[in-house]
Queue: 3 jobs
Job 1
Amino acid sequence: MTDMVETRPDTRRRRKAERPQEILEAAFAEFSRNGYATTTLERIAERAGVTKGTIYVYFENKEHLFISMVQEFTKGAQEIVQEMYDTHDGSTADLLRAQFSFIYQHIVEDRRRREVVRMLIAEASRFPKLADRYFDEILRPCLDRLKQAIQRGVDRGEIRKSSIVDLPQVVIAPIALVDLWLMMFDNRQPLDLKAYFDAHLEMVLNGLLAK
């Protein structure tokens, strides 16, 4: 009996530490099933097995919960892409090749991330603040990391100076097309992602690298 009493505080601490993740998982299930507009914190709380008040302990409101959910899905990948930049000592072409390869393998092919994009496209006009927050907290850091890699190449004389340096959206635009393609056509018009990646990278390097 003594051993049971001694382990209970640890169990409670462990469950408390796991609770935010459980809420985020429940949030994804509800958002993806019902959309942002009709999903309520009450339904998320019910799915997570907590009270609505518990959600407010960790998240300010539904918008904060949604953005936190997206951050949870992407933070690991973003950290690895940044680490690639910080530790890479080879050419910028090799750096971009490694970063884009990772992005395709772990981000482009991530169905959960694509579901979030689908929700944002559907809800952006009705909830512009949500779209703005997604841009500021998720998309802008991605664009900044790409600009960082491109500027590295310019500084080393490996990438020519052009308007592309200031508009990294042009470089990643084919990824947006992949999302739309897979959302619209799925298996009806299958896309060879390996061939698409090779073509995308070839276009990027040919457009950026100094001749």
Job 2
Amino acid sequence: MVKNDLTQKYDKPTILIHWLTALLILVLFPLGKYVEELEQIEKLEFLKIHVIVGIIVFVLSIYRSYLYFKSPRPPHLKTGSEFNDKLIIWVHNIFYILLFLIPVTGIVALITTGYGEAVFARDISLVKPHKGSIPLETHEILSTIMMIVFALHVIGVIKHKILTKENTIKRIS
């Protein structure tokens, strides 16, 4: 059985951004689903909150990416399985990719549907017909993928704790 050195931790800014981003994502996803179901006139205030929180996550992700290359970080976890070791790396890589693609597609969707202008002008009439909007649909699909990867990440942490008896959360807390 492989034992990882759990005394090697991420730096404090990375730890803070990790947990803050996780919390904000857990707010963004249900908020986005809620906004989808609202009538046009009701959407603007909730969409504004969604946009502001999404931009915060985007800025935090940019800063965390900077820290990723600037700050020392612990080595990747080892599980004793080459497949699982690679899966851990891919899950983390997918997070980084999604944390950039989701806000970009959201921003493009705001621009192309007119919601961006409508939110800040508080004028629903500025929204353009957007049934089948590729940026909006892409944003929704990527957000769903994010929640699946998020769940896999949590399951992986729990699985690692059960199988190896290692509390890997120590590295990021």
Job 3
Amino acid sequence: MIGIVDYGMGNLRSVEKAFEKAGSPAVVLQEPDRFGDCSGLVLPGVGAFGRAVDNLTRAGMKRAVLDHLAAGKPFLGICLGLQLLFSESEENFGQDSVPGLGIVPGRVRRFGPDLKVPQIGWNQIHAVKNDPLLAGIPDKCYVYFVHSYYVEPTDADWVLTTTDYGPDFVSSVSKGPVWGIQFHPEKSSDIGLTILRNFGAIVDDYHPGS
């Protein structure tokens, strides 16, 4: 089962419907004690990094997400869900930086003042390595973005795709059973559905201890 984490940030129903359309049904979960029943977990979201961390923590979901990751089960972060995988964000939430889940070493940064913020609309992704999440996805294809912050991993092995918006920024990451994408697959037409279908296939192929 693929579970979509509902921590009060973003329109999760559109993600649920996109998975259904892709042929990989997923369920929206509000109870962290159900996360353990999931072979795959999806963390979507839009909005403030600090508020998201607070919501996850108060609901007991932060611990449940970390347990899922520690078990080596497939995980997909979407938009804010990608950013939450990082060590910290410079988004001001009453302090200089806000700690994230700490799975990907690095920082979440705001686009510079010379760029239109947020970036809204279609842009290309450039594959840096082969990955099952991108099976059947042509290089330099267009996907849909809505974001003011971008991720900056300190370990280049995490980088899956980059995107040109002013300078290149990292638009998706992967290592082992963990993936994170800055764009919105549920808004990215057939390309987005293929990515969700690929994640569904990854979850279907998952076996504990593999």
